[in-house]
Write a structure and sequence with these properties.
Layout lengths: L2 H12 L31 E5 H4 L14 H16 L4 E5 L10 E6 L16 E7 L2 E6 L2 H17 L14 E4 L5 E7 L7 H13 L4 E5 L1 E3 L15 E3 L23 H12 L4 E8 L4 H4 L20 H12 L7 E5 L8 H19 L2 E5 L15 E4 L7 H6 L4 E3 L2 H4 E3 L19 H4 L30 E9 L9 H21 L11 H8 L33 E4 L9 E2 L3 E14 L4 E7 L2 E8 L2 E7 L2 H5 L8 E3 L16 E8 L3 E6 L2 E10 L8 E4 L4 E2 L2 E13 L29 H21 L3 E3 L2 E4 L2 E2 L24 H21 L1 H12 L8 H12 L8 H29 L3 H6 L1 H32 L7 H11 L1 H5 L3 H36 L3 H35 L8 H19 L2 H26 L12
Parallel strand pairs: 1-2, 1-3, 3-5, 7-8, 7-17, 8-11, 11-12, 12-13, 13-14, 14-15, 15-17, 16-17
Antiparallel strand pairs: 4-5, 4-6, 9-10, 18-30, 19-29, 20-21, 20-25, 20-30, 21-22, 22-23, 23-27, 24-28, 25-26, 26-27, 27-28, 31-32, 32-33
Subcellular location: Membrane
EC number: 3.2.1.52
Membrane topology: Multi-pass membrane protein
């Protein structure tokens, strides 16, 4: 079959109307077209380049080794030859013939103007003209512009069809195009995982196809100190990705991993490969934070937080410069990145001096400019030099508008849209929750607004009005980032590609088009990326193999056509391949141990004590098959695909009892990973243990291994490889789930009439106190804090405070809140129901003069003796029902409002710093709404308890109150209830959070990581007891008044608030503060501690997502 027929078949499968170019092609600006169309199959296989243009190279880019136009043309010749399996030639010519009679592809100079969106001229623009049915002209404003035009032409060739489609351009078609922004970049974290030079080169090739211009190579870092099971900080993984050659003493920063570095020749080869495709490598060496690679070598240079450098030590800055002096000559770029983020705020002056010193030294030493991460270092004396480029990544760390006003060049890497955390997000904690796959919905629907397509001037998803002007002179562009916060063993190298795959295409397209260009068609993005990616030249990141059906989509689906790609039996010749990527089904039979190896990994059946075990080996780490239940392994968690929480039913023990002969089936896709059936029975999967952020929530995560096909040894007797996932016994065509959207809806609601006014007032007061706690000033509905402009509007006569979703928070779906409600409801109703006898005794001591002065035991005996033991259960019905509703609302509301108040804080760092204010505001607001539901049932309960014979139970008591007193009777104690329940909730949640934080800070992250289930429950219990004491003390005065009011005490002609103050005066401080306090503390400690323990267990049982945690444990 010819290449033309192959592309035609592929186009027929996906539909020509289901594709678009990435970036989209501008419309023709020519008034003249004909019915004839350009046909690449009928075009002469020659590329002609104008000699006067061939030696041109760009000087306005960042690379110091800019290719000439002829170099780019040579790359294009190689690409089109490989793509079409044809031998294309390249010729220099002195002028072009009459295009109407010409055949071939012509490259030359574009004589028009090409500008970025800010008006600055660029050599990256190009003109594309269809000059005849067999000729095309591409003219570049510079060498790179011509090259970008060839990327467009390659996409047109792939989509060109005799039946029409986007690749079928009429003769006379002419368009001009230029990028809106110079920086169109992607970052890969190579400081927490090793990546081979070949993989990095393939990634550059892939990104170049979508007109990306920069590869931000984050080459040094360390695993987070507050995660993992390391017994000491010196055992924590750190990495430096370059191999020192001149100053060999610097090899000490490699810590024995010289084999996981790039030599100078390796790095030069990488830079040359990338720049040959228009991509400049921007290296980053981190300091003064994320420096464990350095402090493990020289511990004396560290602060108490061991990955931070002590900048006042006389050897610190000379050592950092010594490292840079080794590598600056390697870096063929006009700009380098020195990191400089997440340092101690209290050492702001030291930080600013360091950054400025490094910038000036680098510039003087190498004539290079410096980039840093946006960092909030509140120095009152010093400022960052204006020549330094600031890469904004998070609100609370920098304000992009202020960065521009301060005179810096600016790059948009706002984590809300730009960041991914390879393999596993940080849920449920701050400072970040980043998805494991790029969240394309945040580019297509920025700030969660349908149809708002992001472009690099869009920074703020929280306040839609606070964006940078698209034409801002110093706005460079944008860079997305993939981070390895989960460590080197949590993913394979190719899984970084899966994380970035769509993000590179989308970010490249939107950064190229900007505000002025053509927007993407959201319905065509997925099919277009899937269509192009296997055929992009100079890479095979999808790991396609010979015989792969071109009509199959490589990732995210499966084909019903099960014609094997490879079918082999013992005795037949083994035809070596490389690897087969997503998705695949591999069926093996073996009569003994064997190994399959490839360029990316190996798979082995190895002898074990009880039989055999199956093991993948990748990047130097072994991943044995582990026992996982069918449900856990095959049913995806929609919020965390591939993640199995540690409290699930699976054992995750290594499977070591495989006997031979054996039939093994492995199915693999990106989300579910590599699943295994042994002799037709589901056995488990290959997975990795992931320590959640700050050791808060642990999980097992999927490993998606490619199939190794290069070499076979041992007892393998047959191998069948199919494209797509085919579950044994379930037939073909099983669909594979896509990476989930991170969007989530929000719900709104509130009580009617006067309660709305009270609610608005309470929330206004609570929010004002919360904002004042943050050090913010409310003025004319604007909240201003130094360089931050976070506007918070108070909506008149409504209950809601609007705040946009934060990238660092879990995106809870309505189903999550239902689970929170269910767990909270069960926790509250079980504890309060069980405490009914205690509550009866406590209430009678408070309101019955005959029982004043009695202790709990004597009062209980008195009630039982006079009224019978059943009297101790009086009010059980309204208690159980009331706290079922109130508990569910309170716990779910706390999760909701804590998340909202964190968003209002402006970012994760501020949320951690001001967590007490968040706890206070969230607990008070949640309790208010819960009390609206609780009040009628609480009034009924207290009436039943305090007035003997009032009714026989909940139903009759509720009916009597409704009949005799109406709605006013149910809510007569609403204000006192608020005075009781809001302090109760504040004590319960805020003190519990503080106690948990204190315990974990005391024992340290290493001990926390090894806590057993019983020990973790003990932490919840102990913290709950402390919180119970606080809740009892804070709420006791109002509890006493509420009991009296519901019994009918006070002047009934007055309102509830007036009666409350009247009774307070009558009772006096001693009775309010102390009467019944002992029994109440006893009861409340049990209630609060029990609720937190049960809530945690119930959340696990119903599969609820972890809540938001903003503890500070260091």
């Amino acid at each position: 079959m010819s290449i033309r027929h192959l592309f035609t078949a592929l186009l027929a499968a996906v539909g020509t109307s289901s594709l678009e170019l990435l970036p989209p092609l501008p419309k023709s600006d020519s008034d003249f077209t004909t019915a004839a169309t350009w046909d690449w199959a009928k075009t002469a296989k020659t590329i002609f380049i104008d000699s006067s243009f061939a030696n041109v190279s760009d000087t306005d880019g960042l690379t110091l080794i800019p290719p000439t136009a002829f170099d780019f043309a040579s790359t294009f010749r190689d690409d089109i030859s490989i793509l079409l399996s044809q031998n294309w030639t390249l010729e220099r010519v002195n002028g072009f013939p009459n295009f109407s009679n010409a055949s071939g592809i012509f490259l030359g100079k574009y004589n028009g103007t090409a500008n970025y969106e800010n008006g600055s001229p660029t050599t990256e623009g190009y003109e594309l003209r269809v000059t005849s049915p067999s000729s095309v002209f591409i003219g570049g404003s510079g060498a790179r512009g011509m090259f970008w035009g060839t990327r467009t032409l390659l996409q047109l060739i792939m989509t060109n069809s005799p039946t029409g489609g986007i690749g079928s351009l009429s003769v006379g078609f002419r368009t001009t195009d230029a990028p809106a922004y110079a920086t169109r970049g992607f970052l890969l974290d190579a400081g927490r995982k090793w990546y081979s030079p070949s993989f990095l080169k393939e990634l550059c090739s892939y990104a170049s196809f979508f007109k990306m211009s920069e590869f931000h190579y984050h080459l040094s870092d360390n695993y987070p100190l507050n995660r993992g099971k390391n017994e000491s900080w010196q055992d924590v993984y750190s990495h430096f990705s370059l191999l020192p050659e001149k100053d060999t003493e610097l090899k000490a920063i490699l810590h024995g991993r010289e084999n996981e570095t790039l030599s100078r020749s390796d790095f030069m080869d990488l830079q040359q490969h990338c720049v040959s495709r228009g991509v400049t490598v921007i290296p980053e060496i981190e300091a003064p934070g994320h420096c464990l690679y350095l402090t493990k070598w020289k511990p004396e240079l560290a602060l108490p937080k061991r990955d931070l450098l002590n900048l006042t030590h006389p050897d610190t800055i000379p050592t950092v410069k010594r490292i840079w002096a080794e590598f600056l000559p390697w870096f063929q770029t006009k700009e380098v990145h020195i990191g400089a983020d997440e340092y101690e705020r209290d050492l702001a002056d030291d930080y600013v001096n360091f950054v400025n010193d490094m910038s000036r030294w680098v510039n003087k030493t190498s004539n290079k400019r410096v980039r840093i991460w946006g960092t909030d270092e509140p120095s009152d004396k010093l400022t960052i030099d204006r020549d330094i480029v600031v890469q904004h990544w998070q609100y609370g760390q920098s304000d992009p508008i202020q960065v521009l006003q301060d005179g810096h060049d600016l790059i948009n890497s706002q984590d809300w849209w730009a960041y991914t955390s390879i393999k596993s997000d940080h849920a449920p904690i701050l400072p970040a929750r980043y998805p494991q796959f790029f969240n394309e919905s945040r580019l297509l629907n920025f700030a969660d607004q349908d149809g708002w397509q992001w472009q690099p001037s869009d920074f703020n998803p929280f306040n839609k009005t606070m964006q940078v002007d698209p034409g801002a002179k110093r706005l460079r562009g944008a860079t997305l980032a993939a981070w390895n916060d989960n460590g080197p063993d949590a993913s394979t190298q190719l899984e970084a590609y899966y994380s970035l795959r769509r993000g590179i295409a989308l970010t490249g397209a939107r950064a190229w088009s900007g505000k002025r260009g053509v927007e993407l068609n959201p319905d065509l993005v997925s099919t277009s990326v899937d269509f192009f990616s296997p055929f992009i030249p100079a890479q095979n990141l999808d790991r396609t193999v010979r015989g792969t059906n071109l009509t199959s989509v490589p990732t995210g689906s499966s084909s019903a056509n099960r014609n094997p790609i490879i079918s082999w039996k013992a005795g037949e010749e083994w035809v070596a391949e490389g690897s087969k990527g997503m998705n695949y089904t591999l069926t093996l039979t073996a009569d003994g141990p064997f190994s399959l190896s490839g360029p990316d990994n190996s798979l082995s059946l190895v002898q074990s004590e009880d039989g055999h075990s199956l093991v993948f080996d990748a990047d130097g780490y072994k991943y044995p098959l582990r026992s996982v239940s069918n449900k856990d392994g095959t049913e995806l968690d929609p919020g965390h695909p591939g993640r199995i929480w540690v409290n699930a039913s699976s054992t995750h023990e290594v499977v070591e009892n495989i006997s031979t002969p054996v039939n093994i089936t492995i199915t693999t896709d990106v989300l579910q990973g590599s699943l295994v059936w042994i002799n037709g029975q589901f056995m488990g999967r290959f997975e990795v243990f992931v320590y959640g952020g700050r050791n808060t929530q642990f999980s097992w995560n999927q490993m998606a291994f490619v199939a190794p096909l290069r070499k076979m040894d041992g007892g393998l007797t047959s191998l069948v490889l199919d494209d797509g996932v085919s579950i044994p016994g379930a037939g073909a065509g099983n669909e594979t789930a896509q990476p989930p959207s991170q969007n989530a809806g929000s719900t709104r609601g509130g009580p009617e009439s006067w309660t709305v006014i009270v609610a608005a007032l309470l929330i206004h007061v609570t929010a004002s106190a919360f904002i004042n706690h943050l050090g913010l000033k409310i003025q004319e509905n604007k909240c201003i804090h130094k360089t931050s402009y976070l506007k918070i509007g108070f909506v008149q006569s409504q209950v809601t405070m609007a705040a946009e979703k934060s990238s660092q928070l879990p995106t809870f779906a309505p189903s999550d809140y239902v689970k929170f409600f269910s767990a909270g409801a069960l926790a509250a109703t079980l504890t309060h129901g069980a405490a009914t006898p205690i509550d009866v005794v406590k209430t009678r001591i408070q309101v019955d003069d005959a029982m004043k002065g009695l202790n709990m035991v004597k009062a209980a005996r008195t009630i039982a003796a006079k009224e019978g033991a059943s009297a101790l259960l009086t009010g059980f019905g309204p208690t159980a029902v009331g706290y079922l509703v109130q508990g569910g609302s309170k716990f779910a509301g706390y999760e909701f409002f804590k998340k909202k108040f964190v968003e209002m804080a402006g970012g994760p760092e501020r949320a951690v710093q001001h967590r007490t204010g968040i706890y206070l505001g969230a607990s008070a607001t949640a309790e208010f709404f819960a009390d609206i539901l609780l009040c009628p049932l609480e009034a009924t309960r207290i009436r039943l308890v305090s007035q003997r014979g009032y009714a026989t139970g909940l139903t009759t008591g509720f009916a009597r109150m409704a009949r005799e007193e109406g709605l006013r009777g149910f809510y007569s104690g609403f204000v006192p209830l608020l005075f009781k329940q809001v302090p109760y909730a504040v004590g319960q949640f805020a003190v519990h959070e503080a106690a948990v934080e204190g315990i974990y800070r005391t024992i340290g992250p290493e001990k926390k990581a090894t806590l057993t289930h019983a020990q973790a429950t003990g932490v919840e219990l102990a913290s709950g007891i402390v919180a119970g004491v606080a809740a009892a003390v804070l709420s006791h005065p109002a509890d006493t008044l509420l009991s009296a009011i519901n019994k009918g005490a006070g002047d009934k002609g007055q309102g509830a608030t007036a009666r409350m103050f009247q009774l307070a005066g009558e009772f006096g401080p001693k009775r309010l503060l102390l009467t019944g306090l002992g029994p109440r503390i006893f009861m409340t400690c049990g209630l609060v501690a029990g609720q937190f323990v049960i809530y945690a267990q119930c959340k696990a049982l119903v599969g609820a997502a972890p809540g938001v945690e903003i503890h500070k444990e260091d």
